[in-house]
Design brief:
The complex is a heterotrimer of chains A (about 130), B (about 130) and C (about 325). Chain A is mainly α and about 130 residues long. Chain A has 5 helices and no strands. The chains are: A mainly alpha (about 130), B mainly alpha (about 130), C mainly alpha (about 325).
Amino acid sequence: MNEILGHFNYGIVILLMMMGLYIVIASSNLIKKLIGISVFQVSVFILYITFGKITGGNPPIIVDNVDVYSNPLPHVLILTAIVVGVATTSVGLALIVRIREAYGSTDEDDINDIDKNDNFYLKNRSTT
Amino acid sequence: MIIIGWLSDVCLLLGGFLVLTGAVGLLRLPDFFTRLHAASVTETLGAVLLIIGIMLDTGLMLDTAKLILLICVMFIANPTITHGLCRAAAHGGIKPAMETKSPMQNSTPSDSKNIYENQIQTETGVSGKAPK
Amino acid sequence: MIANLELVIDICLLAFLIMIVFASIKITDLFAVTMLFGIFSFVSALLFLDLDAVDVAFTEAAVGAGFTTVLMLSALRLTTRFENVKHRHSLLGLPIVILTGAALLYGVADFPNMGDANAPIHHHLAPDFIRLTQQKIDIPNIVTAVLASFRGYDTFGETVVIFSAGAAVLMLLGMGHVERKQEPEKNLILWVVVKPMIALILIFGLYVQFHGDFGAGGGFQAGVIFASGFILYSLVFGETYARKVIPATILPRLSALGVLIYGVTGLMSLISNKPFLDYNALSSNPVGGQHLGILLVEAGVGLAVFSTILLIYYSFSGREVIHYE
């Protein structure tokens, strides 16, 4: 029982990872893919924070009469990772906006179709 | 001191009850506006009563001042947010479910969901075409 | 008893997370998925709070739930709202996902139990950080001490990453147009309530910035909160007025200035023959030097994050929507 409860968080983290990965692979919409990546990212955050937890510990802010603090190192890593994560997400969204403006669609399959039907390269080859 | 403890318990229980009411309302009520009404009960009185209960339980500290400030902000911000949401919904074309029959018995949430989906489909065009 | 309660809350919140992600897999309206993702971020912030990571919870609530949602919504304004369900590759996805999950589950079996104080992770660097923070830096918040002082190199790198992300968005989308045809409709209730609220948000941002040494908070969170005040102003009063308060052209410079403050703080210690980012050199008293260094570095981070976030928001919201048939 103790073993199961102790590994419960890890199991859920893996489930979240799987679902994030599924969204990335299965959905052909680029924004939905980005949301899938973000879900994946948050699952990794939860994994790290779970590592840092000590049962009966306190938040790592020094107070009198408290000896046990949870591990501050994963907190530092994840704190910066969250902000970097949102920065990279915004770059991804900006790319998607430009793709939409160029192709008129945010759907990966549509974009592939347009690329196949568009004989831009063939035209170029024939003229040169 | 015992009275304060009792008061705290009463506040917490009442707050919990209101949050539960809000959740049930959110599931059971027929359309967007009535659901928002249920949700706003949760986030104003329910949350505030819970905070007051916690304040009474912990006693006078610096955190009490912060919590009082939080309550002030919640009392101002949450009704405004509900108002803004309602306005946005009305602006977006979601109509209240006006029915002469009792909405609780005859209109299940799935009905109102269909109304909402029809609304969306009429509003937005089909996407995914290449620019000329 | 308290430990058990924490575990119960933990299990409930994780169940919420799973349900939210399931719902967002099924729903094809991207608007709804974005809102669900905001809820997902808030619930994960609660989870971090439950797992004692107060600073992380604060950041996730401010950045993940607040700013990312606004960002996704402004991106949805420029793209399409619905996902094409016919283009789902479920058959391709499922085997890959199940294989990956099985491999990960196999690896997880060797992990120590959650909350085990004897796990290796708690015996190598963390005790030193906790001890040295009390001895050498003397500020209560260990996370801020590690972030700004012990691992200052990392944070410098991350500030540069944020700066370059802002530059990348700027290159892709531009700063947007200053003049917009559509102004938000006049709404007296919002105007009256939002004005004092913005002041409150900005003061709270400053509090978070300078109270980061003592409680949860710091430059990253403060920058986002400060930027969210201006984003709120822009949403309610119209972007034309927001751009009059803080012009978009000044933001890249502010962002660079933030990174510069961080870098110069590091260089100052090089001048007095100490390693890069060694704050002991900043003052005659080593502890005082650490305090000063952390203050300067957090100010640089706050400035860089604030201006980058606001710049990214301006880039997205100021762009014209192109309509296709």
